[in-house]
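Q: I'm building a small set of examples for a reading group on sequence design. Run inverse folding on the following structure and report the sequence directly after it, with nothing in between.
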């Protein structure tokens, strides 16, 4: 493999990650805007639980699947990088979603567990990002909440649980 081939795959992998995060933000935001397609999502808000990492991943990957292949028309390394990047992001997003429902104290990569706060404080128009809050900041839908408020009622013992201690199925 040449350096050029590797770099092509690497840049398209990063592009797939960014695209996945952008799509995650807008898909979630659209579910909150259009009631006709958001019935399942409203039920999710009513129950307040995730469906397990692998089921979440499956729900994220199905609509994304057709968007994974056009980069193969650019080149094989571009297609492979894009395919892996979008899949890695979809899996991380599914994991992040489940983690925030079960143990938001473990979301160390965000100052505030965006999705958890979205649910806890019924923020129908704010904090749509599940894995990251960057697009909420870019599109001005980020609504910060003081830690004391969002941590209220959480069991501090949950912090001792493993990062892998989430519902997988």
């Amino acid at each position: 493999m040449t350096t050029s081939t590797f770099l092509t795959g690497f840049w398209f992998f990063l592009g797939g990650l960014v695209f996945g995060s952008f799509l995650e933000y807008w898909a979630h935001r659209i579910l909150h805007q259009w009631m006709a397609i958001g019935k399942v999502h409203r039920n999710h808000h009513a129950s307040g639980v995730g469906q397990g990492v692998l089921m979440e991943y499956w729900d994220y990957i199905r609509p994304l699947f057709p968007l994974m292949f056009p980069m193969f028309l650019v080149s094989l390394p571009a297609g492979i990088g894009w395919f892996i990047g979008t899949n890695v992001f979809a899996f991380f997003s599914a994991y992040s979603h489940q983690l925030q429902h079960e143990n938001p104290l473990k979301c160390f990569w965000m100052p505030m567990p965006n999705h958890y706060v979205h649910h806890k404080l019924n923020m129908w128009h704010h904090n749509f990002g599940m894995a990251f809050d960057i697009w909420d900041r870019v599109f001005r839908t980020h609504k910060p909440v003081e830690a004391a408020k969002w941590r209220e009622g959480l069991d501090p013992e949950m912090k001792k649980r493993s990062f892998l201690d989430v519902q997988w199925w």
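The radius of gyration is 17 Å.
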